[in-house]
Specification:
By secondary structure, the protein is an alpha+beta fold. The protein has a single domain, classed as Alpha-Beta Plaits, CATH 3.30.70.120. 22% of the residues lie in helices and 36% in strands. It contains two helices and six strands; from the N terminus they run E-H-E-E-H-E-E-E. A four-stranded antiparallel beta sheet has the order 2-3-1-6. The model has no long low-confidence stretch (mean pLDDT 91). Bound molecules: ligand 2BA. The site of ligand 2BA has 12 residues, from strand 5.
């Protein structure tokens, strides 16, 4: 079994959850905040059997779109090392940032 941790844009979350649930893939939604943009995003936890793993990845890839977002000027990002541009800058965000972990045990009590 795998645990997929998928960080996606809020705009894609609802449709993505719907499609995953339609395919019988259980999902938990967390409201999260990206460290760079300091803007809201959505983190989904998916526990999937190995043979559903590729289907879950296909759905994530199909639903999650890349979008341009404006990163605020560093004045509002005090303490963030390595960011020196004095102007807001455009960055591409997403489709999805995905981590896949092997699950030792899956227990429901
Ligand atoms: P944020 O940290 O808010 O980053 C939003 C977007 O800003 C990133 O999109 C990337 O295009 C850009 N970005 C991030 N750090 C940057 C930097 N130091 N310089 C220039 N541009 C930078 P994505 O890569 O698609 O990431 C979307 C969100 O996924 C991130 O939001 C963060 O919440 C999460 N994420 C990405 N990589 C991660 C990682 N290695 N570990 C944990 N979370 C991660």
């Amino acid at each position: 079994m795998k645990l997929i941790i998928a960080i996606v844009q809020d705009e894609d979350a609802s449709r993505l959850i719907g499609q995953l649930m339609n395919d019988g893939i259980g999902v938990t939604k967390l409201a999260t905040t990206g460290g760079f943009l300091r803007a809201g995003n959505t983190t989904l936890l998916l526990g999937v059997e190995d043979d559903h793993m590729q289907r879950a990845m296909d759905i994530i890839e199909e639903v999650c779109k890349s979008r341009k977002q404006i990163a605020p000027s560093p004045a509002s990002m005090v303490g963030l090392p390595g960011v020196y541009s004095p102007y807001p800058m455009e960055v591409m965000v997403g489709g999805a940032t995905v981590f896949v972990l092997t699950v030792d045990q899956f227990i429901k009590l």
